[in-house]
Amino acid sequence: MLPAHADVVVVGGGSCGSVVAARLSDDPDRSVLLVEAGPGYRSVLDMAAEIRDAATVPVGPHSSWTTTFPARLTPEIVTTVSRGRVLGGSGAVNGAYFVRARPGDLARWPASWSYDEVLADFRAVETDADFPGDLHGSDGPVPVARVPWERLHPVSAAFHETAVSAGFGTVDDLNAPGPDGVGRVPLNIRDGVRVGPALAYLLPVLHRTNLAVATGTDVLRVVVENGRAVGVEVADGAGIHRVTADRVVVCAGAVRSPQLLMLSGIGPADELQRLGIAVLHDLPGVGRDFTDHPEVAIGYRYRRDLPTGSPLIETVLHTDTLELRPYTVPFGTAIPGSGVADPVLGVVLTRPRSRGRVVLDPADPRSAPTLDYRYLGHPQDRADLREGVRLAADLLAAMPDIVDASGLTTHLGTSLHLSGTCRMGADDGSVVDERCRVHGIDGLSIVDTSVFPAVPSRGPHATAVMLAHRIATRAWFR
Ligand SMILES: Cc1cc2nc3c(=O)[nH]c(=O)nc-3n(C[C@H](O)[C@H](O)[C@H](O)COP(=O)(O)OP(=O)(O)OC[C@H]3O[C@@H](n4cnc5c(N)ncnc54)[C@H](O)[C@@H]3O)c2cc1C
Known about the structure:
By secondary structure, this protein is of the alpha/beta class.
């Protein structure tokens, strides 16, 4: 049963929304309503096995846990991409790679988000099983561990050895600042279970009387009156309702957050007019100039059968501009229904220059928007990726048990790290200030990867959890 009012309504119970709702409800005097479009669960036993199992990434074509969006990676490559639509969001279905943004990434954020400023928050969200000390947390909700050297999957072990033989240094701790090289991936996995933010933060506090969680419920728009967010309009099986709130925190993810703002009349005035939406506040940056990691998957063949059931990525190699990811199993094994039979080595462009945009459909602005990535639009991106494919081919040729590395197939995709659709900053294209408050609208915040000024040079998940923790535990909502 939905309350008629909550002090704070959190829109979206994904990676960030789970953390925000849990931390804001730490104050028993604050009522919090978390609204999630996808299905929910009340305990780890209640979760579907494929959400629990860290070796499965349940985002294939028949998944019950995702929304699919049309995507144009380049003018020629049209595809679809998935995001989580379940309590825990994309963090409930992801690869469980939990690597922090680098100091250089955070240097592109407002000064209050420098590496030195946020280190305490990175530490607070985790319990690192391998590295105690000043850089790591020992009592945070998210368990972080690397696969022990002696238990690495044969592909991961061979990739590490080959990279070291090729002259790359071993990095012991990929969550410490320092030089690039090859190392074991910090994973948010405990006993084979993917411990995303819903499991780590939200389930332990579901008993609170000041926290209500409505799953299977869509937020249709933020209600804005006289320049202030005063609540949300939602749809569930029983109809359409209005819930009033003192503050609305949008955590609907990097696609739905900008869409929801636009549906609420906040966004680029020219585009809202084209869509037939009344303009309440002209914010040109909404949905524009996003970044994500282009990833070329290089398919190859193995000479022998390899074990399954390992985490999808156990080791990676970083250079200035690239991340090479030796996936331990074919996507067809890890992602039910995806049908990709060969194993792949992923080549990720970590600091892409091309910028994309979220495009709403004028015929039905509520439907899934198109993601226009404009990948490889910048010549340096093309050059860097080509260099990455060459490096990957050389490493594969030197790895034992690879069959015919000369017949490699390549396929351009995306790492699904969409960021910056509602950028944080003070410039004309920014949407929120450094405390994640939407410019020009009182009582409205966005807290998810939409607000990243740019995609970090590593996967975004650890940084997203840090962001949500930092915002929700500061005095910035009080
Ligand atoms: C398949 C996949 C694998 C990935 N693997 C990794 C990885 O291994 N490591 C890494 O660092 N990153 C990874 N990522 C990226 C990372 O998981 C995401 O960047 C991160 O989880 C995003 O968190 P978020 O809170 O911004 O959004 P989400 O976690 O996507 O949460 C948004 C939530 O809002 C809900 N919602 C949306 N609209 C509404 C609405 N109108 N009303 C109510 N609810 C709504 C959605 O259902 C969803 O639950 C992966 C992403 C995907 C999709």
